[in-house]
Amino acid sequence: MKDTMHRPLRPAGTGTRCDNALSVGLGPRCRTDLAQLPPTPAPDEVLEQQARAQQSGTGQVMVLGQPAAVASSRDTVRNLAVLLLHINTASLDPPARFELHEQEGGTRRWGLHPPRDPITRAAVFAVADRILTAQSLDDAAARFMPWFDAIPPAWEGRVSWAADHTHADPTLTRILLAASTPRQRLSHRLPRETGLRLRSAWIPQRLPAQLSPLVDGCGLSAASARGFASLCLAKAQTGTGSWAEAATLLELPGPVGVDLARTASAHLTIGTDAWIRRLQQVGRQLAIEKVGYRARERVVRGLGQAGLDELLHALQALRPGTRAGSRDLIWHWVWDHWAAGHPSTSRSGVHETSRGRARYVQFRDSLQSGHREAMMIAISRFMA
Q1: Which burial class, exposed, middle or buried, applies to 31 when counting CB atoms under 10 A from its CB (0-12, 13-18, 19+)?
Q2: Burial of residue 195 (number of CB atoms within 10 Å: 0-12, 13-18, 19+)
Q3: Which residues in 337-368 are b (16+ Cβ under 10 Å) and which e?
Q4: What are phi and psi of 340, to 5 degrees?
């Protein structure tokens, strides 16, 4: 930082001219009048980060809402800044672009050779400081998530890529693992979502039609979304290890649960977090209603000829054109709309052929609200 070995950086004095050396030795000096330069203050986040660094002294600072030693927190800030610079270099679309000199890119180890530009260094330290000063680990992971998503695909995974490009101290490792959690498979996330815990009897084999709007717009058909939502709620219950076990909890065949999960997971167009938020809404509604769906399923399965005749007569009282041969359609409608049962467990056989499915759709769409209410009242008498 000196022009020669024996002279100061600039001549002493109170002038406003720069006078820094422009070359080695006794060469010309800069004639720029510093007083005429427009001031460009540093961004607020940079000033805040520098103020915190200066105020920390030798005591403790707050990292992720918890007190931490100054030395370890500075190491974490530096390690995170190193990782951000690596992501900036490797990613095609990082959340923030740090301008680096061409010779500073490539495989240079940022931990040993930080960028020379003080503006770039201040900017990356400010981003790292903002992440670490979050009030909780979840908040820090949310702030780091855009950077985590910008990590280029790697066969070893994003967390391992990050660990290979910086020193992953314990605090930084926690942030990396928390940021990777939303990307974990849905089947791994569900058992840890305590907000989805319900009594298994309150979970239908397929969500009732009135709850369908809560899971619409996810890339699945209405029927598949209703069935997959119920299966996910079953998967979230304690002691349920696989999709087949989740199906068994709902008294569905195990292969039905596996096939439904495989199909739905392949076509789900919303993220895991968004889907879990919808499941939480559904779970809250089911907890309010407290309907015993296993009991309803047993009632419908136990309907004999007399029970079906009673439902038929209740419908014919309001809909005289109903044929006696519609008993299988009535049974299936009650199974679908009152017991919220899955078509695969329907004993009516309506869904086994395309002709049967067409008959049922025509019958279902022809029912008016009064017809549906009459059958609901008639079937409810069997619960007594």
Answers
A1: exposed
A2: exposed
A3: bbbbbbbbbbebebeeeeebeebbeebeeebe
A4: 55, 45
Q: For the segment 165-187, what is each residue's pLDDT rounded down to a tens digit?
A: 888 899 999 999 888 876 566 77
| Structural contact between residues 256 and 247, judged by C-beta atoms closer than 8 angstroms | yes
Burial of 254: CB neighbours in 10 Å, binned 0-12, 13-18, 19+: middle
Q: Where are the domains of the chain?
A: 1-39, 49-183, 189-291, 296-383
Number of neighbours of residue 264 by Cβ within 10 angstroms: 22
Helix (H, G, I), strand (E, B) or coil at 285: helix
The number of helix segments (H) and strand segments (E) in the chain equals: 16, 2
The H or E element containing residue 61 is strand 60-63
Specify whether the CB–CB gap between 375 and 312 falls below 8 A: no
Is pTM, for the whole model, over 0.90? no
Tell me what pLDDT residue 5 has.
43
H helix or E strand, kind and range, residue 63: strand 60-63
